[in-house]
User: Which sequence fits this backbone?
């Protein structure tokens, strides 16, 4: 299980993050101060840290430095500070990503998963039934032959792979695609993209075996 440490002094945000992250299968630990965070990272190993910039007893910059000195744990700043100087400073100190509050939940999840993949802490290659996604190269292939997908088709397929074996409702898929694309995606547009994907990746699009329709519930990749 992937362990995530949340360093945040707003209890409501911590509670919301815990619900969101645990729903995605992550194990969540949380602290509310810089000193508590230093103690936690000194005693335990985490796969990723979500770090607020402003804490009651200090700022997140020194914490990011301490985390990076200890090892290669990826750090994502999650903060209300959206000025250029704060963002540049965070990246100069080794931050792996920088997200401003208020954040969109599914975008946060996607960024977390991308950072984990880049740092070798989650699979970079997904495969099923001869279909393969190399997320580092953003290449999709079927039985060794590359398949060209549009950005939204690729994103939709990646979402399904990230939740392989789980039924995803149409609303959930729409929310994830919209968050990443930045444009509203209508329900009938999702149907179009599912059909286009099936035409490209299925042996028999009329009887799909990879992207399955679960009647009344949504879609699922795999059995």
Assistant:
């Amino acid at each position: 299980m992937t362990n995530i440490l949340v360093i945040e002094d707003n209890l409501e945000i911590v509670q919301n993050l815990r619900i969101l992250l645990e729903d995605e299968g992550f194990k969540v630990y949380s602290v509310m101060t810089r000193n508590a965070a230093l103690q936690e990272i000194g005693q335990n190993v985490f796969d990723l840290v979500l770090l607020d910039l402003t804490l009651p007893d200090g700022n997140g910059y020194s914490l990011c430095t301490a985390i990076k000195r200890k090892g290669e744990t990826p750090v994502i700043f999650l903060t209300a500070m959206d000025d250029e100087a704060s963002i540049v400073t965070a990246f100069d100190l080794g931050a792996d990503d920088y997200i401003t509050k208020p954040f969109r939940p599914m975008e946060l999840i996607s960024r977390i998963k991308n950072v984990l993949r880049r740092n070798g802490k989650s699979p970079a290659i997904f495969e099923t039934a001869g279909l393969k996604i190399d997320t580092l190269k953003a290449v999709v292939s079927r039985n060794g032959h590359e398949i060209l997908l549009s950005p939204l088709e690729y994103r939709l397929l990646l979402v399904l792979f990230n939740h392989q074996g789980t039924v995803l409702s149409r609303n959930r898929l729409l929310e994830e695609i919209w968050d990443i694309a930045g444009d509203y995606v209508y329900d009938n547009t999702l149907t179009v993209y599912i059909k286009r994907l099936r035409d490209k990746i299925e042996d028999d699009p009329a009887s799909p075996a990879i992207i399955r329709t679960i009647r009344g519930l949504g879609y699922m990749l795999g059995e």
